Amino acid sequence: MPPQSDDKRQAAREVVDILHEISTLLNTNLDRTELSLCVSLIENGVNPDALATVIQDLRKEAPVTSGAPRNESPE
Description:
Layout: H1 3-25, H2 32-43, H3 48-61
């Protein structure tokens, strides 16, 4: 592989690492893979606000299958 490709991959990893740190501070509960997918979707034209809404809706609809806390506001 050309060195330039390795540089791009390293830069992408660094960006995802930074985004993951921000995500952790904001308690989004998104892992690195999920963040990478979100970035790819946004880069390909998906509206970020719409994506956030879909993620929130999916979390509300998903059954709780693990002990991981869910970000739900009390009713």
